[in-house]
Every structure is written in structure tokens, then in C-alpha cells.
Design goal:
Layout (H helix, E strand, L loop, with lengths): L5 H22 L17 H8 L1 H18 L8 H16 L7 H19 L12 E9 L6 E6 L5 E6 L2 E8 L5 E7 L2 E8 L2 E5 L6 E5 L4
Length: 219
């Protein structure tokens, strides 16, 4: 009978354990985060992206919270039945981010814009829920702009601000800053930034100098 030495026995055991570990790793599904939908049955590429991304998952849960609140607001603009219709079209548009060059950035923009719309249109959606991850819209008056700038904030990591004025909008992401809070972003127009410290802000758009802004008092 062929004898197996203790050293060989140990090596065989380690090899068997490694094979089992690799097999278990291959069978383990990618981590998913809590979302408003069931990640186990997600089919759309953007839904799968949201399930794998902690920030997008948080934005998804917050948007669903805002949407459900807006549906209970009989004074919302638009009315709840139109809010529901708009949400369906928004979901279709969000899922189209899958064909964009940067699906993640596109999805973040869609969530930021929709959160702005829901909070702007519904006082109930703007209630001070302790679990909220959105703030605003906050109005700023900027030198050189005839229209007020509305800012809606998504307090995720990194944070996001959605700015809207007249027929223009932009979504920016928070970056490190020695003072105040700084958001930056790029799109087809070029680089943009929004720096805020309390009631004062600076808005920088492509091809223009920094515009000084101040919070518009609520009447």
C-alpha cells in the first residue's frame, strides 16, 4: 500500500479547500443594496447598475419616498394623477441611460432632476422627514442672471446639487474644498462649478466669469 506523508496530506487538504473557496466565490452573486424594486428580478441594465451602487441605491429610495409623498398631496403641481403619469415616463427615460457613454452619470442626473421636480411641486414632499436625503429647492439671485437659480441638494456620498434657472439646468457633484461646499461637473458645454458658504455662493459656467449669488429671502 502506498503511504501518504503528513506533508502531502496537508497540501492535498489546502488544495481541496482552495477549490471549494473558488467555487463558492464564483457562485456568490454580486453585492446588491436596498432599492425600491427587487434586485433579484431586475432586468433593465440601469436597474442592475443601481443595485450595485450604494449612492444610486440611496437616491432611488429617496426618490421613491418623495414620489409617494407627492401622490398624497392634493395641492401638488402637477396634481397627483399627473405626477403618477410623469413618473412612468421618467422611469422610461431613466432606463435609456444604459445606452449613454456614462450610464452612471446619466442616472445620477435623472434622479437629481426628478427629485427637484417633486420637491418643487409638493409642499408635503418638502416636509422635514429625519430620513430624508434631499433639501431644497433653495433660491439664489446671481449677478448677471435675470432669473433666480433654484438649487436642490442630494445628500449622498459624494453629494449632488441640481441647479435650474430659466431654460438651463446642470447637475454637479461635490468635491473637496478648503472652505464652503464646492460642486463641479462637465457636460457638452464645458466645466461648471457652484461654491456655497451659507447664504453666499459663486456660480461658474463655461465662457463666463464667476457670478456672485446670494440666497433669496423666502417671502
Amino acid at each position: 500500500m502506498k503511504m501518504v506523508t503528513p506533508r502531502l496530506t496537508s497540501l492535498l487538504a489546502v488544495g481541496a479547500w482552495a477549490s471549494m473557496s473558488l467555487g463558492a466565490s464564483a457562485a456568490t452573486p454580486a453585492r446588491s443594496f436596498n432599492t425600491s424594486f427587487d434586485c433579484a428580478t431586475a432586468r433593465e441594465p440601469v436597474e442592475k447598475l443601481i443595485c450595485r451602487d450604494a449612492r444610486l441605491a440611496q437616491m432611488d429610495l429617496e426618490l421613491t419616498r418623495l414620489y409617494r409623498l407627492a401622490l398624497t398631496d392634493e395641492h401638488s403641481v402637477p396634481r397627483p394623477d399627473k405626477v403618477e403619469i410623469d413618473q412612468r415616463f421618467w422611469l422610461l427615460a431613466r432606463d435609456q441611460c444604459a445606452v449613454e457613454a456614462d450610464p452612471k452619470a446619466c442616472t445620477v442626473r435623472h434622479y437629481a432632476e426628478r427629485a427637484h421636480q417633486l420637491r418643487q411641486g409638493s409642499a408635503i414632499a418638502r416636509t422635514k422627514d429625519p430620513s430624508r436625503r434631499t433639501e431644497g429647492p433653495q433660491a439664489f439671485r446671481c449677478a448677471g442672471l435675470g432669473a433666480l437659480v433654484a438649487a436642490t441638494y442630494f445628500t449622498v456620498e459624494p453629494a449632488v446639487v441640481y441647479l435650474k434657472w430659466a431654460n438651463t439646468s446642470t447637475t454637479l457633484e461635490q468635491v473637496s474644498s478648503p472652505s464652503g461646499t464646492l460642486y463641479k461637473g462637465n457636460d457638452y458645454r464645458g466645466s461648471q462649478s457652484f461654491w456655497q458658504d451659507g447664504n453666499d455662493a459663486l456660480l461658474q459656467m463655461p465662457g463666463a466669469g464667476p457670478m456672485r449669488c446670494t440666497v433669496e429671502p423666502v417671502s
